[in-house]
Amino acid sequence: MRAINSMLIALIVSIVIGLTGCGGGGKNSSNNTSVPNAICTFGAAVYAPGTPLLVSISVTPSPTTKAYAVEDAPPTGWTVSDIKNAGIFDTVNNKVKWGLFFDNTARTFTYTATPPAGASGIKTFSGTASFDGTNVTISGDRNIGR
Question: pLDDT-based confidence at 33, cuts 50/70/90?
Answer without folding.
Answer: low
